[in-house]
């Protein structure tokens, strides 16, 4: 029995057409992943790869989009899984700059969504990003003229306890940190 190509086209076409007025195409999950990645401040391909480490596929992103939730709500929902995937990738590949940037992006995102009131006795002109400043240097693994290169990262906040906790975690990872009170210029942690 010979099957004609015309007979195969109709079922094949129906597989790629959405039953919901073509609102959700084949690439919907990938596009939604891109929206989430832009919101977090990381590369969308990297976000997808990290999420694959924990079994989260494009189909899951598509399901989140179909659930009609915003990219911010989806990011808050997947953030613990993303952190778990980062830990998995870090154990496999070591401290790569892309992984460290993603960790920094998570910290920055959490500081951004957390509303910390400014103290009244400190003007915003004195400390535009917050009273306390945490800076740390991370080796990139690259060499320049025989010296190991480092990347410097930093963040500002009014929440000293949170910055101290972040600094302790960084120190435990072998990173040199500097936590400074910008008003009094006092070094809190070195």
Plain-language structure description:
The chain is built from seven helices and four strands; from the N terminus they run H-H-H-H-H-H-E-E-H-E-E. The chain has two domains: 26-115, no CATH class; 128-190, no CATH class. The N and C termini lie far apart (79 Å). The model is unreliable at 1-22 and 115-126 (pLDDT under 50). 51% of the residues lie in helices and 18% in strands. It is an alpha+beta fold. Helix 2 crosses helix 3 (44-53), helix 2 packs across helix 5 and helix 5 runs antiparallel to helix 6 (97-113). The protein has helices spanning 5-16, 28-40, 44-53, 58-66, 71-93, 97-113, 160-172; strands at 132-144, 147-157, 176-181, 186-189.
What would a concise description of this structure say?
The chain has two domains: 90 residues, no CATH class; 63 residues, no CATH class.
Shape: globular
Largest sheet: 4 strands, antiparallel
Task: Compute the number of structural domains.
Answer: 2
The proportion of residues forming helix, as a percent range, comes to 40-55%
**Which H/E pattern describes the elements?**
HHHHHHEEHEE
Uncertain segments: 1-22, 115-126
Strand content: 15-25%
List keywords for this structure.
2 domains, disordered N terminus, single chain, alpha+beta, 190 residues, 4-stranded antiparallel sheet
Secondary structure topology:
Layout: H1 5-16, H2 28-40, H3 44-53, H4 58-66, H5 71-93, H6 97-113, E1 132-144, E2 147-157, H7 160-172, E3 176-181, E4 186-189
Antiparallel strand pairs: 1-2, 1-3, 3-4
């Amino acid at each position: 029995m010979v099957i004609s190509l015309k007979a195969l086209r109709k079922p094949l076409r129906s597989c790629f057409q959405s039953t919901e007025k073509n609102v959700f195409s084949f690439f919907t999950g990938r596009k939604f992943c891109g929206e989430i990645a832009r919101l977090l401040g990381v590369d969308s391909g990297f976000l997808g790869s990290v999420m694959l480490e924990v079994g989260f596929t494009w189909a899951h992103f598509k399901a989140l989009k179909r659930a009609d939730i915003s990219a911010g709500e989806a990011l808050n929902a997947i953030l613990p899984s993303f952190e778990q995937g980062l830990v998995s990738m870090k154990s496999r590949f070591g401290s790569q700059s892309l992984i460290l940037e993603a960790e920094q992006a998570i910290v920055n995102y959490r500081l951004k969504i957390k509303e910390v009131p400014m103290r009244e006795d400190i003007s915003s002109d004195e400390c535009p990003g917050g009273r306390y400043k945490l800076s740390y240097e991370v080796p990139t693994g690259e060499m320049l003229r025989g010296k190991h290169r480092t990347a410097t990262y930093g963040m500002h906040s009014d929440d000293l306890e949170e910055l101290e906790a972040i600094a302790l975690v960084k120190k435990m990872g072998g990173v040199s940190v500097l936590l400074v009170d910008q008003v009094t210029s006092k070094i809190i942690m070195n």
